[in-house]
Amino acid sequence: MKKFLAAVMCSALTLSSQLVAAEEKPVAIVIHGGAGTILKKNFTPELEKAYKDTLSEAAKAGYALLEQGEPGEKAVIAAIQILETSPLFNAGIGAVYTWEGEHELDASLMHGGTHNAGAVAGVKTIRSPIAAASAVMHLSPHVMLSGEGAEAFAEEQGLTLVDNHIFDTERRLESLKKVKARMESAGLYGGQKGNERFGTVGAVVLDREGNLVAGTSTGGMTAKRYGRIGDSPVIGAGTWADNDSCAVSATGHGEFFIRYHVAADICTRMKYQGTTLKEASDTVIFDVLKPVGGDGGIIAIDKEGNIAAPFNSAGMYRAKIDGKGVLSVGIFEQWETL
């Protein structure tokens, strides 16, 4: 009897130790609100604070769920939905206008443990594109749905549909007018410059179970035409997650990020070359993309909770909460220089 009780006690202590160990596993989150020609001289203190406050809010919302042991996907969606709701960022409300004066939204989501993924492209009436990407991921046999088909699927799944004009903002409308005037006078299409070319939001996380999850959402390129789709909904280009390496969300000139398969390339370099997250991220952003004109940046996290967020543009809106629970927010400087 004494041996039996001792065995029971030993098993209980082992289980308790395992539970404590599970609770102590680090969690972390990194988010971005887009990269581009983001210069400090163009910001008032009030505007800079508004950006940093919203970035902090999104990072804290996702991190709180991770601390509670919620799945990483839930944290990614929660963080991105805060940015989709803010007129400061090119996603959801605040999305840029197409040439025709509408909004066409893209989003994607990927789980690093299952390699399951979902994406929507060119949607106009889905309130939260990242939620729609999750629905595609879990409730359809497909990876990417587009346009009216994606909207019909979202409605079937009970997602909120809205009038396209809910995404209107005066700031983005003025941007459209300026871009169209310049392009029409020059007689060209596809000649977007600087911040006209990109703007995205995204999140990557390491959850309590050790899963890496990545998500990205965007309004795309100002004055885009002909149903143009960028890298954000393309798995491997704008979003990628693999528990054996890293999770990445990209932001930049999407055509280059598609051509160079940026998000997956970073993780593949880690997985097969044995490079660190920082080495792989820096190589792709500075040595692969920059020489060919691929402006932008990425946020990434690996299975150890290491974080990288390099960008080759003037700035990138971003925030992180690391494995120790420390919050950092950046816009203009690389984090290594802060």
Contiguous uncertain segments of 5+ residues: 1-22
Task: Tell me the β content.
Answer: 15-25%
If you compute it from the alpha carbons, what radius of gyration comes out, rounded to the nearest whole angstrom?
21 Å
**Multimeric status of the protein:** single chain
Major sheet description: 8 strands, mixed
* N-to-C CA distance: 62 Å
Number of helices: 9
**Overall mean confidence score, pLDDT:** 92
Share of helical residues: 25-40%
**Series of H and E elements:** HEHHEEHEHHEEEEHHHEEEE
Strand tally is: 12
**How are the strands ordered across the major sheet?**
4-3-2-6-5-1-11-12
The computed structural class is alpha+beta
Shape: globular
Structure description:
- By secondary structure, this protein is of the alpha+beta class.
- The chain is 38% helix and 21% strand.
- The protein contains nine helices and twelve strands.
- The protein has helices at residues 2-24, 45-67, 72-85, 129-139, 147-156, 170-186, 254-259, 262-273, 277-289, and strands at 28-36, 105-111, 117-123, 144-146, 200-206, 212-218, 239-241, 246-252, 296-302, 307-308, 315-321, 327-330.
- The strands form two sheets. The protein has an eight-stranded mixed sheet with strand order 4-3-2-6-5-1-11-12. Strands 7-8-9-10 form a four-stranded antiparallel sheet.
- Strand 2 and strand 3 (117-123) form a beta hairpin.
- Helix 3 (72-85) packs antiparallel against helix 4 (129-139).
- The longest helix is centred in the first third of the chain and has 23 residues, at 2-24.
- The termini are far apart.
- The model is unreliable at 1-22 (pLDDT under 50).
